[in-house]
Specification:
Elements: E1 8-10, H1 17-27, E2 30-31, E3 36-38, E4 45-47, E5 50-51, H2 54-57, H3 60-77, E6 83-87, H4 90-103, E7 107-112, E8 118-124, E9 132-140, H5 144-156, E10 160-169, H6 173-182, E11 186-192, E12 196-197, H7 203-208
Parallel strand pairs: 6-7, 6-9, 9-10, 10-11
Antiparallel strand pairs: 1-11, 2-5, 3-4, 4-12, 7-8
Helix pairs in contact: 3-4
Length: about 220
């Protein structure tokens, strides 16, 4: 892991360190420096770094590792759920399809916009009234997606959230709040240390002065 060792750590007891090291070396999803806007629109957060799920989802071996570990977590908990609920982000869908297939559960997908924002509608699958959902995302830097927004959509459709899962989580306040509230019902394989700032609290902007250029990457965005 080298210099990334203090920025990327394994959080799942059943996701081996060597798998993380292989994934990071081959997929190169973690970019620890830079000035990123997310969501990519006015008022979005300023991130000092980024973890992209698309390069991870592009390798079937990594997809299988993640699906295997998420389902093992659910089995250890004896977690009963009816549907896996995720945003329709292309890389996230690949992971969610694999998890749902391995778990023998259907998946349902909420609208995902190019900016990184969620839309207003269910685009595939069903959430039946009274059904129990595991909300899933590939990456949560801020914690809002699985800690707030996806559960809100599940409730809007008449279901309830039984647990939350991500591949990589950050350390923002909403992440910590979700960890405290859900305990073992909040799964992550790894933690990616990415500082997140409100637009008026970004130290990079304060140091460099506007306009500060944004860092752009191929391969999609994290959340």
């Amino acid at each position: 892991m080298g210099s990334l060792g203090d920025r990327l750590t394994v959080t799942s007891a059943t996701f081996p360190q060597e798998r993380l090291e292989t994934l990071v070396k081959e997929a190169r999803p973690f970019h620890p420096e830079g000035h990123y806007l997310y969501p990519a629109e006015e008022g979005g957060n300023h991130l000092q770094g980024s973890f992209l799920i698309e390069p991870v989802a592009a390798e079937p071996r990594f997809v299988d590792w993640i699906a295997q570990d998420v389902v093992a977590w659910a089995d250890r908990l004896g977690l009963e759920f009816d549907v896996l609920f995720a945003p329709a982000q292309p890389g996230v869908r690949i992971l969610a399809d694999a998890i749902a297939s391995r778990a023998g559960r259907p998946a349902a997908y909420w609208e995902y916009l190019p900016s990184g924002r969620f839309g207003q509608r269910l685009v595939e699958g069903r959430v039946e009234a009274g059904s129990r959902a595991v909300v899933f995302n590939g990456v949560t830097h801020t914690g809002r997606c699985v800690g707030l927004r996806l559960p809100e959509f599940v409730a809007k459709l008449g279901g309830r959230t039984a647990a939350a899962a991500v591949f990589a989580k950050g350390r923002a306040p909403k992440v910590a709040e979700t960890e405290e509230r859900l305990g073992g019902c909040f799964y992550s394989a790894i933690r990616a240390e990415v500082p997140v700032f409100a637009p008026d609290g970004c130290p990079h902007c304060a140091r460099e002065g506007p306009p500060v250029p944004w860092t752009t990457l191929l391969g999609g965005r994290s959340s």
